[in-house]
Amino acid sequence: MNREKLFNKMKKFPKVDLHRHLEGSISPQTFIKTAEKYGGKLPTHDLEKLKPLIQVQNDPPGFENFLSKFDLFRGFYSVINSVENIAFTAVKEAAEDGVKYLELRYSPTHFSSNGRFSESEVIECIQGAIDRASSRFDIIVTPILTISRDYGVDLAEQTLGLIEKMPKGFVYGLDIAGDEVKNSAKPFADLFDRAKKSGLGLTIHAGEACGAANVREAVVDFHADRIGHGISSVEDESVMKLLCEKNIMLEVCPTSNFYTGVVPSIKNHPIKKLMETGVPVSLNTDDPAILATTLTDEYVAAVSELGFDENDLKVLNQAAIEHVFYPDKEKLKNMLLHYWD
Ligand SMILES: [Zn+2]
Questions:
Q1: What is the whole-number distance in angstroms between the Cα of residue 121 and the centre of ligand 1?
Q2: 73 falls in which pLDDT band (50, 70, 90)?
Q3: How far apart are CA 29 and CA 90, in angstroms?
Q4: CATH number given to 3-340
Q5: Which of 199, 207, 248, 305 has the most C-beta neighbours closer than 10 Å?
Q6: How far is the CA of 254 from the centre of ligand 1 (A)?
């Protein structure tokens, strides 16, 4: 099958994405349009000049370079309507890409860092945008809040405090992201405990830039329900066994792993081996706009670079549905599983 045919087929294929950051889902075009409509400082309004500042395309792979792409926009949001606009657009674009169920994570600290509005205003606004977009398009979206290792424990605690004060059923999951090399997850241990006690699903970025020991720590010490990336588990039989026994899903994002320099090429990605070993895995985008990818592109790569067939892709989606943070899993299964019968 030629690439165009395969792309069209994969675009139509119903897909689940459990690991996608809103911060990394805003295309250069959306940034320019948002700035023109609502204000917000951009280094340039020239699309071709803006692209390399926020996309890793053609950059040499590396973790620091990847993380640096987020810096530019930390102070971008000067009015709350611009946050609403980018969140609505991100959900719309996911739906247009054939994503039927999306867990969209974001850091309220990131969007409020300009100081013009509070984290709770950000959460309410993004919830409104998600509701507006999902009533208009064929997609179900579950929000997850991200705390970042890089912002420190105090800010993370503030964010968790906000979630705890919200009416039940507003936020369903907590994620910890940020620089795994420079900042350990250990200082956040009490927060993970509190999150679990509040009934939140817990996903921890681990075993991406660092080794399998971090995955073990996330599972054994912090009781993660899912692991963001976690692909270094493949280096340690006992960690893979642990993931199988405890039924912990790895949220795998191949293009992201390539651009952060974790794998030398998609062809060498360990997702197939992890699957064959019985480790629960799902296929996701991470930061589609920054990585200039879509979930459709990830599926195309899985087929053309990694030899996945349609049945493998069905299995991945069925497995993903088993590990969602959506509050009523049975209801969700009734709504979605027919896609992969
Ligand atoms: Zn991530």
A1: 23
A2: confident
A3: 12
A4: 3.20.20.140
A5: 207
A6: 11
β-strands 99-106, 15-21 pairing: parallel
Is 208 labeled as catalytic in the residue annotation?
A: yes
Round to whole Å and give the CA distance between 123 and 126: 5
Backbone angles phi, psi at 105, to 5 degrees: -105, 150
For residue 1, the CA-to-ligand 1 centroid distance in Å is 31
For 144-183, the pLDDT digits (tens) are 999 988 888 998 999 999 998 888 767 899 999 988 878 8
Indicate the pLDDT class of residue 202, thresholds 50, 70 and 90.
Answer: very high
